[in-house]
Design goal:
- The relative contact order is 0.07.
- The protein is mainly α and 78 residues long.
- Helix content is 50%, strand content 0%.
- Helix 1 crosses helix 2.
Length: 78
Amino acid sequence: MRTTLTLDEDIASLLNKEARKSGESFKQIVNRFLRLGLTAANRPVRKPFVVTPINLGLPADYNKVEELLEYLEGPDYR
């Protein structure tokens, strides 16, 4: 399909840069990025992954990993 499309200068610049970098034609680049954008817009919104911290009952005053390892595994942890 042939159509006329007016692009903002910043978008045209980015598309031209991508065409030079990839060696593809401007038309191929425009179609590829339109396809990517349109398929991404149709994806369902995913719920954010949430991690719920669990209190392990450890003292919170350890500033170094070595101290924590010694507390958890004893002085001969190495």
